[in-house]
Amino acid sequence: MNNPLLSTEEKRRWLARVFRDEDGEYSQADKFKALVEDTKLAALQQEEEEFKRQREIGAAPQDPILALLQAIPPAELNLHQHPLSEK
Questions:
Q1: Cα–Cα dist 56/62, whole Å
Q2: d(Cα 57, Cα 36) in Å, to the nearest integer?
Q3: Among 3, 5, 12, 47, which residue has the fewest nearby CB atoms (within 10 Å)?
Q4: Contact (Cβ atoms closer than 8 angstroms) between residue 44 and residue 8
Q5: Rounded distance, CA 79 to CA 76, Å?
Q6: What CA–CA distance (Å, rounded) separates 43 from 23?
Q7: Which strand (E) or helix (H) includes residue 75?
Q8: By three-state DSSP, how is residue 58 classified?
Q9: Reduced to 3 states, what is the DSSP secondary structure of residue 63?
Q10: Mind giving me the DSSP string for 6-57?
Q11: Does 73 have pLDDT greater than 70?
């Protein structure tokens, strides 16, 4: 299941097979793990689709780390005058 060559959609189809299992091949714990994994993949798939949509409309793709750094007030970025380093 950790095959990086499978697309997100292929992984979600495989997980759907686990959900539908009625032969007892997968335990309830396996089904719960599959549900958690599917939820993560759904969020990833949504992010990928949003990125593609923004790129198609010409919006500049924003690096999430860069966006986080831009949200920090400038005084917080000055590491040389950090209150902990003054002691």
A1: 14
A2: 32
A3: 5
A4: yes
A5: 7
A6: 29
A7: helix 74-77
A8: coil
A9: coil
A10: S-HHHHHHHHHHHHH--SSSS-HHHHHHHHHHHHHHHHHHHHHHHHHHHHHT
A11: no
What is the chain's alpha carbon radius of gyration, rounded to the nearest angstrom? 21
Q: How far is CA 54 from CA 44, 47, 50, 84, in A?
A: 15, 11, 6, 41
- Once rounded to an integer, what is the mean pLDDT over residues 66-86? 61
Per-residue pLDDT tens over the stretch 14-71: 888 888 888 888 888 998 999 999 999 898 888 888 878 877 776 655 677 777 776 6
Q: Give the phi and the psi of residue 29 in degrees, each rounded to 5.
A: -65, -40
Residue entry with tokens 């992984």? 11
What count of residues does the chain have?
87
CA 58 to chain centre: 23
∠ CA 32-24-22, nearest 5°, is: 85
Across 19-36, b (16+ Cβ under 10 Å) vs e yields eeeeeeebeeeeeeebee
